[in-house]
Amino acid sequence: MQSTAINTEQSIQYFTSESPADEVILIRPEGFREYDARWWYGFAGAEQPAEINLAGIVAVGAGLAQMIRQRGIEPAIVVGHDLRSYSFEIKTALIKGLISGGMQVFDIGLALSPMAYYAQFALNVPSVAMVTASHNENGWTGVKMGCERPYTFGPADMAELKSIILEHQAEPAKGGSYNSVNNIEKLYSAALTKGRFLKRHLKVVVACGNGTAGLFAPQILRRIGCDVVEVDCAPDWNFPHYNPDPEAAPMQKAMAEAVRTYGADLAFGFDGDGDRCGVADHEGNIIYADRIGLLLARQFSEKHKAAHFIVDVKSSGLFRSDPVLQAYQATVEYWITGHSYIKRHMGECRALAAFEKSGHVFLNQPLGLGYDDGLATAIAVCEMLAANPDQSLAALHRQLPVSYATSTLNIPCCDTEKYGLVSRIQDYFANLFEAGGLFAGQKIMELLTINGARVTVADGTWGLIRASSNKPDLVVVAESPVSLERRNDMLRAINDVLRQFGAGELPDFEGGF
Predict the structure, then answer these.
(1) Mean pLDDT score of the chain, rounded to an integer?
(2) Of 223, 325, 448, 483, whose CB is crowded by the most CB atoms within 10 A?
(3) What is the rounded distance in angstroms from the CA atom of residue 43 to the CA atom of residue 127?
């Protein structure tokens, strides 16, 4: 293992706190989700009962070590944690389990998820376990894991890990060790900003919702020459203003207000662990991440002819019809929502970049190392503006065709029921499509069922119903390239299907339907 560029120090005292080994192990099975793990851990005074305890976290670490050993992978792993008040103790328990299973642990400390992914490359370490609940409310915890950089676990991996842990298959092993790595932040920042000083002055708002990104994002953007206005960047795990979620209305409102108040060129909003980025233009308009992705894809395809791009099923239908991408012979593929799905598929088909409507952007070589990074996204947007010095982000955005899209709409649905319900909805649409039936008043032209059901009708209007990967929710998105009325026709039709299958109804949202 080559780590000469990394400062590490052994620490035995780190593990002298009392072990929770004698506690009854508490692990709610539903916490093992499609591509990461998330549980309600709670906090002092919380009414909701905990779904996992420290003994359970130790078991997760031991199970992960067992899984890595069974696969014959080098027993070395990067571990980091977000700023929540309890994340350090969660990480400590996780490390105890990992070391008991023979893992060499490289602890990068307080970090963003993309910093942990970067550390895998910088340290030449195959595996990662990042303690974070991302944008979830205070009281949640979780672990993003992988053992084959730059990929993170998918459903089969999570099922295997769940089985090992819940069936108590983990066995102790020798060779475990602890290494404290104290300069990943500097190396990560240098790698992101090297040779990237902007030739255009940009005043940018950086909104972080008091999440972990506030400790790193302002300084990194200043390094490329941005004039940064910090909004809610002071770390506070209680998230006193709003949850750090750039896809949610409260954070978007804060971004829009700040960019107008300070006369900034644009605003960036980062989620709790820094792997997602939201964007607002100088007029205070939130530009959905899939449309930012289309602007970036145009920029990338100009320099990288015949590039292949991946977008998730929640993303705009404009990718397929975009004349600029077509002029540069770029190809676009719709794929399963979720950072683990996108990363792996991007690597397998050697796509140049990938985009999710939620704000994940993935840059593959030569643009990046193949993982999602909100700060790398922000830098790419800044470089796009620097390459178009006479145009604002709003002006660039207006070059895209008009479409009428919803934000991501969520409907509560029990974790144990949501997948079966979506499967029945998929069958309904498959039968309707095969029979040549109409939906939202028009013939169905395409049905994608790789992730829920995405139905596109004759005029290009489409709607999606899928199960959320990390919440007890169903997810609905709709878009029309024709009119707001046609988009709402699609929403009404989807609402009828939801009612038909006993899934409730769409929530009220801005614009209504």
Answers:
(1) 93
(2) 325
(3) 29
Q: Distance between CA atoms of 102 and 99, rounded to whole angstroms?
A: 5
Contacts of 47 (CB under 8 A, 6+ apart): none
Mean pLDDT of 257-281: 97
DSSP-H helix ranges across 130-244: 155-166, 184-193, 217-223
C-alpha 129/C-alpha 330 separation (Å) is: 35
Angstrom distance (rounded) from CA 377 to CA 337: 18
Indicate whether 423 pLDDT > 70: yes
Confidence of residue 415 (pLDDT cuts 50, 70, 90): confident
pLDDT at residue 208, as a whole number: 97
Report the alpha-carbon angle 321-332-350, nearest 5: 160
Cα 433 to Cα 120: distance, rounded to the nearest angstrom: 45
Q: Tell me the pLDDT tens digit for each residue of 79-119.
A: 999 999 999 999 999 999 999 999 999 999 999 999 999 99
Helix (H) or strand (E) holding 494: helix 484-500
| Token reading at 68 | 């890595």
Between the CA atoms of 378, 297, 344 and 453, what dihedral angle is there, to the nearest 10 degrees?
A: 110
Please say whether the beta carbons of 36 and 211 come within 8 A: no
What distance in Å separates the CA atoms of residue 335 and residue 452, rounded to the nearest whole number? 11
Strand, helix or coil for residue 111: coil
Q: How far apart are CA 472 and CA 140, in angstroms?
A: 14
Among candidate residues 179, 169, 181, the one with its CA nearest the CA of residue 60: 169
Kindly report which listed range (385-394, 406-415, 441-450, 503-512) carries the lowest average pLDDT score.
503-512
* Residues 304-347 pLDDT 10s: 999 999 999 999 999 999 999 999 999 999 999 999 999 999 99
User: Could you tell me the maximum CA-CA distance found in the chain, to the nearest angstrom?
Assistant: 68
Tokens of 66: 């067992």
CB atoms under 10 Å from CB of 319, counted, come to 22
Omega before 150 cis (within 30°)? yes
Contact criterion met (CB below 8 Å) for 307 and 283: no
Give the three-class secondary structure for 148. strand
